[in-house]
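Fold sample X.
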Amino acid sequence: MTHTRSLIALAAGAAALALSACGGSDDATSSTAATTADQAGSVSFVSPADGAMAGHTITAKVTLEGFQIDADQVGKTNEAGRGHLHFSLDGGKYDYPKYSGANGDLAKQLGVEGMYSPAVKPTITYSGIPSGEHTLEVDLVNNDHSETGASASTTFTVG
């Protein structure tokens, strides 16, 4: 009975660790591989620069380090350091097809419109953005859309 309880406790601990992990592993001998922001890489905005003035149509571009966009694996098994991007303009206020085009269409298909616009390229274009200050955020995410912990944001003014 004690042996059975030990196995159950060990299995429960392993399951909890696996559920808390954000990434996967190619190593068959490793049952879990937690993905931290350092393991996932980093992301930063190339444009718009923080504090920039912009037009009503804006194309944002990010640069990635230690992370690879893997369009063919979206929705599949997580792999450390691989996945895609989630852009969110003003907390999702402009993450609809009307503003983020094809990325917004994909957000609508996934049921996440108004939250974020998924992207498999390091760029996104928003159109028809009203005048005023706006904040654009981007998250590096795993294949299953779970967060890796790596993100960046920029604030710009449309005027």
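Fold sample Y, listed below.
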Amino acid sequence: MTELNAAIRNIHLPPRLARRPVNNRGFPVPWFVSHRDGDWDFVNLDPQKIVIAYRQNICWLCGDSLGQFKSFCIGPMCSINRVTSEPAQHKECSEYAVRTCPFLVRPTAKRNEKATLAPDNIPGIHLDHNPGASLVWTTKSYKPIRVSNGTLFELGDPVEVSWWTQGRRATRAEIEASIAKGMPHLRKAAAREGYSALMELERYIERAEKLLPME
């Protein structure tokens, strides 16, 4: 077995993810990753795996069965509209991701430009920037919803949330800065739909603010 990357070697690896292969850079390979041209392709997702994960109730990251609780590793904008493009995960798998994924751990990191899925083909509102903070959202329910350019997942009410940045718990100030970065995109999208959409967005923002830590 390939040794884990030095950057994540001292971070507890959940048993379910420990059963996954490790790539040549020393990172566990999530279940959703495809094997192409003799190597693991972390960039281009297999759309069929989204369907399989939801219908068979399996973790998007480790591939094992899920129980009563479903967790999601999402960006701050998703905490406002409560939708995401990826299926559910185990809580410990989500928390491992926000502590080890290079894109999530480094706020200055950029998305890989080799992805064959163009932004226009990703359902919902695609934000290309690094959000700077992530949220592990745990709920008992979620369901697919149709949008104009595909399918997203609507998240049920959270039973627990935790905010992360740079591989650690995020402060309220860091979360607010992350939200402020993406907010113009949400307001612009709502403005295109009219006044009622803008008012609905304000209600969503107020609802999301209740999920932020005190400090």
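Sample Y note: The chain is about 35% helix and 20% strand.
Also: Residues 172-193 form the longest helix (22 residues).
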